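Try this one yourself first.
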């Protein structure tokens, strides 16, 4: 799935729901429980994402840039990648294949794929 029309259609169908495991501050995500950060998880707080609409926009931009995994579950890619306004690579993972909902998190500094995501993100502007 790489043509712009298919990617644009997919971007309209996906929804960001978040995960309490990746939040210290639950913002307006409506999470239950509100926040339950786990020490082994990266947190969205570190990249200043506290609003659901910001996360939704980033998710859609990742799709439109073609940063979607080949692996699919039903109609949706297993993963979508994007980059925060501060330049940090983010990964979203499919939560519910029936509804097309995702939760996301910053990629760790040691993740070699993060650099590839950032490079591809920059290429979309050329």
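Now uncover the answer:
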């Amino acid at each position: 799935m790489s043509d712009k029309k298919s990617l644009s259609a997919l971007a309209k169908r996906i929804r960001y729901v978040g995960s309490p495991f990746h939040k210290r501050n639950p913002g307006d995500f409506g999470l239950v429980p509100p926040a339950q950060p786990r020490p082994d998880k990266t947190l969205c707080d570190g990249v200043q994402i506290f609003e659901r609409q910001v996360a939704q926009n980033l998710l859609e931009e990742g799709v439109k840039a073609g940063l979607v995994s080949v692996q699919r579950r039903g109609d949706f890619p297993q993963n979508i990648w994007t980059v925060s306004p501060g330049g940090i690579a983010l990964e979203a993972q499919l939560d519910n294949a029936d509804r097309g909902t995702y939760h996301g998190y910053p990629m760790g500094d040691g993740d070699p794929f993060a650099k590839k995501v950032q490079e591809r993100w920059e290429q979309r502007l050329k």
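Discussion: The beta strands are 15-16, 72-73, 76-77, 79-83, 89-96, 101-106. The chain has one domain: 4-123.
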